[in-house]
Design goal:
The complex is a heterodimer.
Chain A (H helix, E strand, L loop, with lengths): L1 H15 L11 E11 L5 E8 L10 H8 L5 E8 L2 H11 L3 E3 L5 E5 H6 L2 H9 L8 E5 L4 H4 L9 H9 L9 H9 L6 E9 L13 E12 L2 E6 L1 H10 L6 E6 L8 E18 L2 E17 L8 H30 L6 H8 L1 H8 L3 H7 L1 E12 L7 H8 L1
Parallel strand pairs in A: 1-4, 1-5, 5-6, 6-7, 12-13
Antiparallel strand pairs in A: 1-2, 2-3, 7-8, 8-9, 10-11, 11-12
Helix pairs in contact in A: 9-10, 11-12
Chain B lengths: L15 H11 L6 E8 L3 E8 L5 H21 L8 H9 L5 E4 L2 H10 L2 E5 L5 E4 L29 H9 L7 E8 L5 E8 L5 H13 L8 H8 L11 E3 L2 H9 L3 E5 L5 E4 L17 H30 L7 H11 L6 H21 L2 H21 L5 H14 L5 H21 L1 H17 L1 E2 L2 E2 L53
Antiparallel strand pairs in B: 1-2, 2-4, 3-5, 4-5, 6-7, 7-9, 8-10, 9-10, 11-12
Helix pairs in contact in B: 9-13, 9-14, 11-12, 11-13, 11-14, 14-15
Classes of the chains: A alpha/beta, B alpha+beta.
């Protein structure tokens, strides 16, 4: 009887909590992307992309006819300015019938103006707020960040999802919020993040370029010193960053074959790549040795080289190495001379190898040491597969004549 | 009024008019009692009493009446009938029926009439002859409806106890198989048999079964469910602590594990005890199919057991408390489908689950011709119309149907219905406390289960307490040549099942 009473009490206690923190799905505004810009009056402009569930129904239902009529978008763009991000959120909330829900915001875009002035003040919200995710991609854009969110989705239902998928293709830098903070806070490495830009999906068609065929592209990267943007790297230079940060998954290298060998071009794709950064401290002089190992597959050959000859393969390998070295050097020069920003994490590598020397000698003067650092780039390319045929089509044709 | 008539202590007087009068009063207004009066020779009055419909008229005719009348004639021609020792003479030399007993008490006479024996009273003899010529309409041995198999014997128990015992005996031709008979129910006088394998089953358990069975004093036992509830360990638990089956091969398999079976007359369902939670997840077919297939099917069963218990509550918890735990695109499509639904997820889920349970119950009760029509309407209303009317969301329909299917994958029906019932408190927990509530509910169930005992055997054994060697037959089913030992809990006296390991191997080369 006593036991029964206790059980009854426990059962009565359950509904007393009153479904604490219960929120129905229909009462949420699911934020899919956030953009932050600096206003001219010093306030922040927070722009959010919010999913509109009624427009997201299964294909073939009423929603498909809705998109045809136009005007009914699966996302809504809302924006508000505020002294802080939270302030802007509060004001935004007043305009919305449903509670803002940040857990599914997978993209944070920050405009150039804000980035140049420093990102730490705005990012604090995203570290502190319990709904935000550290596994959101952080992206920077030249111009206004809000414009990126206004994009119409073509493949996915929501454009933020498109950008996220694009990030995961491993073409550009993949920087999550947590990686960004890590680079910001760690010694001997400076933040770098992907740049997103609106690009026309076609080129060369002059008339339609003014049309709506725009798409968000991950192109290039934003380079920081501390939390301030110092400059942009273009696509080719970003490859160099990826190479030195050992983040490259695949890459296509095209080399020109000199005229005395017959001319033409060869394209090879790297299927396996690793980069080893080895700091060498000798007689107080610091040197960085960057060894790049890659295995390539030949994808295209329109030169006159016969790939069945091992000497030719060796020659192509040398050419590949030269090309890679050139490209990395380009990036390195820019980072060292133009930006003076150690986005490759050479400082961290030095600290890991020579912790005492780092603390004593380099830690405080790294900004002066880095631009003058001697970096020895040593690529080791291997051509492991030449595809289904050896000779190129041109050669076969000539032989048969 | 007393719930039964007091026993009649009088003796058979030998004066047929007196005895017959007493019996006629006892059986007055019972139109199925037949009093067949006849004469042995010319003078000797005799009466045969039996219940119409419970005796085989052919046997009565050829094995009792004919020999008796012929004997009467012969006696008449010789020297008349001598009365002393007549009953044993008849028993030993005249009546050709196989089972004949004698007795001197009126109560015995009444009892024997009621169980279907034919009673013979002869004027001047103060003993009655009880001749077994039972025979009544029986259902044939058919395929068990609730435990159908693809591979395995198709015989199922019937309502007749003797047939059932025969079905077991045919599978265990050893004197070690014991079948202890007893009668339960003051009015029903139901025959009950406790069966076990001597030398394998634990004596203490058998003694405990006897003790608990002897405690039963009730007016009638109509089904094994009566006995189950009267002898189980924790009467307030929602979990079944005694298994039942209508498959003779299943009960024999359990006897070989050292279990005790209880067969009850008038029901095809026999009880098996002691039993563990995991045994209720096993089907007899597991042991007939290839072991790899059986193992995979078993794992599937456990997976769907969890689904049957938790899927709706997890869905509710994720949708109303932990939206961040769903992948973005899944959340968006869930949000899209829920947009038109006016209820909170918990109400929606309860609505659907309760209608499903109602449909299931209706499906059992409805007369067969109507059943189909109703289930089609039910499926249409729930599946199609409710979604397009915006009362429930499409994902909820999917969840409910998967859960519905999942609960039927549990082989033991009583176990399945327990899980189905537990789903509702779990859903309420999920709706009020989210995943935290789900976890609390699961913990509560686990604690309760680990406290349960079935005739001294822990309900969660061999996992808790752990018997490593018994794990061969819990989540997986090892091949038969690997089942060297019987289960530790019930067959500790005689653990070895086979001689060593009997794994087939190719013959040695040149050997």
């Amino acid at each position: 009887m006593r036991k029964l009473g206790i059980l009854l009490l426990i059962l009565v206690m359950l509904p007393m909590t009153g479904c604490w923190s219960r929120t129905e799905l229909n009462d949420l505004s699911i934020v899919t992307a956030a953009a932050i810009d600096k206003m001219d009056d010093g306030k922040y402009l927070l722009t959010l992309q919010i999913a509109v569930p009624t427009m997201l129904g299964p294909v073939g239902n009423s929603s498909s006819s809705g998109t045809g009529s136009g005007g009914e978008k699966p996302t809504a763009i809302v924006s508000e300015k505020g002294e802080t991000i939270m302030d802007a959120c509060r004001k935004l909330q007043k305009k919305l019938p449903r509670r803002l829900f940040f857990s599914h915001s997978r993209i944070i875009v920050i405009g150039e103006k804000q980035a140049r002035e420093g990102v730490s003040p705005v990012l604090d919200f995203f570290v502190r707020y319990r709904e935000s995710r550290l596994r959101s991609f952080i992206l920077f854009t030249q111009g206004k960040a809000a414009d990126i969110l206004k994009l119409n989705a073509k493949w996915e239902k929501i454009s933020a999802e498109e950008i996220r998928e694009e990030e995961q293709r491993h073409i550009g830098l993949q920087i999550y919020l947590k990686d960004f903070f890590h680079m910001l806070l760690a010694d001997g490495i400076e933040p770098v993040a992907a740049q997103v830009a609106l690009m026309s999906t076609e080129i060369d068609s002059e008339e339609s370029s003014s049309g709506q065929e725009m798409n968000a592209a991950i192109s290039g990267s934003a380079v920081f010193r501390k939390d301030k943007l110092v400059g942009w790297l273009n696509d080719a230079e970003t490859r160099g960053v990826l190479w030195l940060r050992n983040e490259l998954k695949t890459s296509i290298v095209t080399v020109d074959i000199p005229e005395d060998k017959g001319g033409g071009k060869i394209s090879a794709a790297a299927v396996r790549e690793t980069t080893e950064i080895k700091p060498i401290l000798r007689n107080g002089k610091l040197k960085i040795k960057a060894e790049i190992f890659m295995e390539n597959t030949l994808y295209e050959n329109n030169s006159k080289l016969d790939m069945s000859d091992p000497r030719v393969i060796q020659f192509v390998e040398r050419e590949l190495e030269q090309d890679i070295k050139k490209r990395i050097q380009l990036t390195l020069d820019k980072a060292q001379k133009t930006f003076n920003s150690d986005i490759f994490g050479f400082g961290t590598a030095v600290y890991r190898t020579y912790p005492k020397a780092w603390n004593r000698q380099f830690k405080d003067s790294w900004d002066d040491v880095f631009p003058e650092l001697e970096v020895d780039i040593k690529p080791h390319a291997k051509l492991v597969r030449t595809g289904l045929t050896n000779k190129s089509m041109i050669m076969v044709e000539e032989e048969s004549e | 009024m007393e719930y039964r008539t007091p026993p009649n202590n009088e003796l058979v007087s030998g004066e047929i008019a007196l005895d017959l009068g007493m019996l006629r009063t006892t059986f007055e207004r019972s139109s199925d009692v037949v009093f067949r009066e006849f004469q042995l020779g010319d003078t000797q009055a005799a009466v045969m009493i039996f219940l119409d419909g419970m005796v085989d008229p052919l046997i009565v005719d050829s094995d009792i009446m004919q020999p008796l009348l012929k004997y009467g004639e012969q006696m008449q021609q010789k020297s008349g009938v001598s009365l002393t020792g007549l009953e044993s003479l008849l028993k030993n030399q005249v009546i050709t029926a196989s089972q004949v007993n004698t007795g001197g008490q009126i109560q015995d006479v009444i009892d024997h009439i009621l169980v279907g024996d034919t009673v013979l009273l002869i004027d001047g003899v103060n003993k009655a002859l009880f001749i077994s010529a039972r025979g009544w309409g029986k259902r044939a041995v058919e395929e068990p409806a609730t435990e159908a198999v693809i591979r395995g014997p198709r015989e199922g128990f019937t309502e007749d106890l003797l047939t059932n015992i025969t079905l077991i005996r045919r599978r265990l031709r050893t004197p070690q198989l014991k079948i202890e008979g007893m009668q339960l129910g003051r009015l029903s006088k139901t025959d009950v048999a406790i069966t076990y394998l001597e030398g394998i089953a634990d004596e203490a358990v058998i003694e405990e079964v006897r003790k608990r069975m002897n405690r039963i004093d009730i007016d009638a036992i109509l089904e094994s469910g009566y006995v189950e509830e009267l002898i189980e360990d924790s009467p307030f638990s929602i979990f079944p602590q005694i298994n039942y089956t209508e498959r003779p091969d299943r009960i024999v398999g359990n006897l070989l594990e050292g279990k005790v079976g209880i067969l009850i007359d008038n029901t095809p369902f026999a009880l098996i005890l002691p039993v563990t939670f995991f045994e209720m997840m096993q089907a007899s077919e597991d042991y007939y199919q290839r072991y790899i297939v059986s193992t995979l099917i078993r794992l599937l069963r456990y997976m769907f057991l969890v689904i049957a218990l938790l899927l709706p509550s997890l869905y509710i918890a994720l949708l109303t408390f932990h939206q961040e735990m769903l992948p973005t695109s899944l959340l968006l499509s869930a949000a899209a489908s829920r947009e038109a639904v006016p209820f909170p997820a918990i109400v929606e889920a309860l609505l659907m689950e309760i209608s499903f349970e109602a449909l299931r119950e209706a499906g059992v009760r409805l007369p067969r011709p109507v059943g189909q029509a109703v289930s089609i309407v039910g499926a249409l209303v729930i599946g199609e119309a409710a979604v397009s009317a915006g009362i429930v969301s499409a994902p909820m329909v999917i969840i409910v149907s998967i859960t519905g299917i999942a609960s039927f994958i549990v082989p033991s029906y009583s176990q399945a219905i327990t899980i189905r019932l537990l789903r509702f408190p779990m859903m309420i927990m999920a709706g009020t406390l989210g995943l935290y509530g789900v976890l609390l509910g699961v913990l509560f169930i686990l604690i309760h289960m680990s406290r349960l005992r079935s005739f001294g055997v822990p309900y969660l054994s061999p996992l808790a307490p752990l018997h490593a060697s018994d794990l061969k037959d819990v989540l997986i089913r090892v091949p038969w040549w690997g089942m060297v030992r019987r289960s530790t809990e019930t067959a500790k006296n005689n653990p070895r099942r086979m001689k060593g390991t009997l794994r087939p191997r190719p013959p040695k080369r040149g050997g």
